[in-house]
Amino acid sequence: MDKKLGVYICSGCSIGDALDTDKLAQVAQKEYKAPVCRVHSFLCGKEGVEQIHKDLQEGAVDSVVIAACSPRVKAEAFALDPCMVQERVNLREHVAWCQKPKDEDTQMMAEDYLRMGIVKAQKMEPLEPVSDEVSKAILVVGGGVTGLTAALEAAAAGYEVVLVEKQAQLGGFVGTLKSRFPRQAPYTEMEPADLADQIQAATYHPKIKVYTSTSITQTSGQPGQFDVTLLKDGGTIVHRVGAIVMATGWKPYDASKLGHLGYGLTPDVVTNVEFEKMAAAGPLKRPSDGKAVESVLFVQCAGSRDQAHLPYCSSVCCMATLKHSEYVHQQNADAKVYIIYKDMRTPGQYEKYYAKVQNHPGTFLTKGEVDGVGKAAGGKLSVRVKDTLLGESIQVVVDLVVLATGMVPNSADGEAIRQLHDAQAKVLRNESDTQRQEAEKKAEELKAHEGTEILHLTYRQGPDLPLLRYGFPDSHFVCFPYETRRTGIYAAGTVRAPMDSGHAQEDALGAAMKAIQSTELAAQGQAVHPRSRDMSFPSFFLQRCTQCKRCTEECPFGTLDEDEKGTPKPNPYRCRRCGICMGACPERIISFKNYSVDMIASQIKAIEVPEEDEEKPRVLVFMCENDAYPALDIAGMNRIQYDPSVRIIPLRCLGSMNIVWIADALSGGIDGVMLVGCKYGDDYQCHFAKGSELANRRLENVKETLQRLQLESERIQVTQLAINEYGKLPVLINEFMDKIREIGPNPYKGF
Amino acid sequence: MTQEASGKPDAKKVLVIGGGVAGITAAIEAAEAGCQVVLVERAPSLGGRVARMNQYFPKLCPPACGLEINFKRMKSNSSIQVLTQAEVQDLAGSPGDYTATVKISPRYVTDACTQCGECVKVCPAERSSEFDYGMSKTKAVYLPQANAFPALYALEREACPAGCDLCVKACAYGAIDLNQKAETKTISVSAVIAATGWVPYDASKITNLGYGRCANVVTNVIMERLASVSGPTQGKILRPSDGKEPKTVAFVQCAGSRDENHLPYCSAVCCSASLKQATYVRSAYPEAKVKIFYIDIRTPGRLEDFYTKVSSDPMVELIKGKVAKVEEDPATKDVILEVEDVLHGKKITERVDLLVLATGIVPQTQGLPAAATLDEFGFVDNRPGKTGFYGAGCVRRPEEVSATVQDATGAALKALQCAVRSAHHG
């Protein structure tokens, strides 16, 4: 059915001074036969907006193109039914404010942008959000202090919870402690570690179903519709849940690797976890002979902050050792405690506890490095410490040495397990010798991951969360600490990052909130962060699928599963709507109702490419709409001018760039293509994790296209840009235009 | 965002005080989980302290990137009502049923503003930019920041010459209203999140470190503005005394923090912040030397990687030591430091071009309702079991951005619980 397109052109904010808006209106009316086209001098004002609503109400119009300011502004004024076909054309920041007024090139730019907006709107379809039945129950994996807190807090907000614990009891590590170090005002008194109240509250809570001695054998489905199979007492139970909080905690670093610090030398060298157990069990005694402990030396960062062991800081050991020092002095006020540290780390209000413990006359703290631990007379231990504040090297003789070992997350490396399974399958299949050997090597390399699964997700991309670093499934985003790469699954507590139990409880709150939110948004068919509330989702024209698996492999969020042949099986609730799958597909069978390969291709086609002798080159710029596009807006707000030969197309993510667009553009006479996306690499800034990197990788294939067309590879440029580099962006555009002019016109013009 | 949030009787309504990264997060997270949110911010635009920063550690990415996404989330969400230049004057009632009185100061610029900037062209008056910590000036009518949200200009009426109405005449959209008056709104909510953030410790109180006395001694927050492209030097780090590029830059850690005479607590972020600012210096000036004087370097968790990376730069030297005295060379305005190098047990003297004081975080609790309980350091204390009123972010504990966001997300859940309870029983 033909759309009744209303095209609304604003002439305010110098748009009318820079452009001939009547001529623009003629483009809409004559070239595209828009049934309604209006020019208004203050479109975002009451009268302008009312006109749009009136046309819609009267049925004169059912789809709207607003050619005015950037879509980033006046969103409230121009807010329409979010499912309706609507498109914004940026005539202000991207034309009137950055180009010469009343200039032929400026007018051509504006007319092209209007054409591009109109053809896109013509191709768009109204949105119909997914609306299946959705569960809002939350699965909490792990019954330690983080899991218990997440369960109780989600239940307190009215949500059903399934709490699964592998051990026979709830309580985890904190449940075994003698005391917790102070986490709240006045920050000087140890706190009871007793979790009995919380355990009881969870056990008898009408909204919480607790499973102890239980493991997960399978998690299938998607947010709002996860089916979790639990194994308990040899039988299985299936629960449908909407979202998952993974709170599987930590384990102490393997002290047997710390022989250089004396571990294993005598039973009197213990870890901080062993020391905690000794203290909880009763009076502290030397493990070797049961004699009273009169002196203890604590070695901080035993394994942590050490490139040979754990390169990260385990965050809690300084506070834990201060607490342990108190344990020693509670028992024997005259005992001597030595603490050898790299840096004492007691952030925030914890400093108060450090000051308190430090003031005890029996506590000696020094920066230093333990150089060796040996046996001394009387069953004692002799510790050599170098580079101290007391002198070059000192020797301390003590009854007990405690190694403050760090935290290792209880996680599973979903991506590695997937690779392992792929390699194992390849070994079994009748592959060629070299392929089999490679697969065997890979399988051997990854065999430590065998059987480590926790969630057992049935995802094509692996059975557990992808890990960021050092085994932590943490977020890479400073601003968005819960952004794991599996929608609706949130890590919390010490499995996410090293933290103390107080912080873990707070983290549980945040993760529970994200879990709740993901079910609420799923129930409305809306996306979660960063395209919150987006109601579009990709559809797949599978008849033309060639099972190349690019989409299933490249989706950063593991949205797509595969059947045996490799045909993608979409899971819309897992989808973040970035369009990376659409960019990946060589058959162009993936599209959104308001974003598709065809829409962008039509936009490219709508650009009027002047003949060669007119000496007006045309360059297409694909721009990430999250960072580069706003940067160009700000350049416009600062009235920074740039070459009028460029035509910007914003993309949801540069990763949604399909290389067919580049081929289309170049074979249509466009002289060059620029791609501006977010930084990638270790410190990537792409909001969809891999988008800009994938776009860059796809360009390798474009080189072939260029060769086939016998075009210079310099006609394509990828640029990484941060949102605050708005001063640099116009310069980059101009430099690229200079280069294109130097190379000369695209020979395909006029074909 | 709408100007009028829904008044449904069963609306789960939450008040968020403060529109920095903590408040923005709390508001969005609560709204996306189904709450109606009123966000009250004292400044004319959102973003708070982070909006003035050049980059975040450890990724060295611009704060505007995350703010942009969050502003987009707000624009598409009619459940969030943003009130700027607004302050909570009173909070009455009890958890589940609070009545907040909010005073909204006049902006003199209405929602009709299109950001066209014609007013600025004609404005004859100037004001000191608080955004740049007073280091730059704007016209009396100004856009609070490049990516201002709400995207509206504001007018500082006190700066206007008597009788001037040039901006009114220049505005084609009738968006300037010099007769706007302060208004007071009462809002009923079930829960309150205080996310009022922090202020930098007043460096002039640390008399031995030379701030205010030596021209080339700056604080870490000022360093952020000097390094930022939107700052007074367009991102060039220059000596305040003569605008020269510094060749040696020193940082004094714990400037006021971990000090019984100033802030007895650790401000938690300054170590990573100085390491980050060391990268600003090093990337701008490949020849420049950086020295960091510290008590302990505190980079917990994966931030240790950042410490490892920055400290591996041979031009960055970390010295465990206490800075006893800071003086200025009257001729060159160089900064001369007397430091006790504790590891080597000796006194050293250093001459540097620029000295940065890593001043700490002071909770911004001024004007918070009485429902806020404070700890002995002045931070909001969320006691376990306390309902209805929650502190989030740096107002309750010094912490970096990602911990702040995490905390604010958690606070949003506490608020949701309270709202759900009152929606059921109310």
The main sheet of chain A orders its strands as: 9-6-5-13-24
Helical fraction of chain B equals: 10-25%
- Number of strand elements of chain A: 33
The shape of chain B, in one word, is: globular
Largest sheet of chain A: 5 strands, parallel
**Strand residue percentage of chain B:** 25-35%
Contiguous runs where pLDDT drops below 50 for at least 5 residues of chain B: 1-9
- Biggest sheet strand order of chain B reads 13-19-14-15-16-17-18
Fraction in helix of chain A: 25-40%
**Termini gap of chain B:** 26 Å
Roughly how many Å is the radius of gyration of chain B? Answer: 23 Å
Q: State the largest interface.
A: A-B, 97 and 91 residues
Which of globular, elongated, flat, extended, rod-shaped describes the shape of chain A?
elongated
What structural category arises from helix and sheet content of chain B? alpha/beta
Could you tell me the mean pLDDT of chain B? 95
What is the multimeric organization of the chains shown? heterodimer
Overall description:
The complex is a heterodimer of chains A (751) and B (426). By secondary structure, chain A is of the alpha/beta class. In chain A, 31% of the residues lie in helices and 21% in strands. In chain A, the strands form ten sheets. In chain A, strands 9-6-5-13-24 form a five-stranded parallel sheet. Chain A has a five-stranded parallel sheet with strand order 15-22-16-17-18. In chain A, strands 2-1-3-4 form a four-stranded parallel sheet, sandwiched between helices. In chain A, helix 8 (272-281) runs parallel beside helix 9 (317-331). Chain B is an alpha/beta fold and 426 residues long. Helix content of chain B is 22%, strand content 26%. Chain B has helices spanning 21-32, 63-75, 118-122, 166-170, 220-227, 270-284, 303-311, 401-425, and strands spanning 13-17, 36-40, 80-83, 86-94, 97-104, 126-128, 137-139, 141-142, 154-155, 183-189, 191-194, 198-200, 217-219, 248-255, 289-294, 316-328, 335-341, 346-352, 354-359, 361-363, 389-391. A seven-stranded mixed sheet of chain B has the order 13-19-14-15-16-17-18. In chain B, strands 3-2-1-11-21 form a five-stranded parallel sheet, with helices on one face. The two termini of chain B are 26 Å apart. Residues 1-9 of chain B have low confidence and may be disordered. Chains A and B meet through helix 6, helix 10, helix 13 and helix 17 of A and helix 1, helix 2, helix 7 and helix 8 of B.
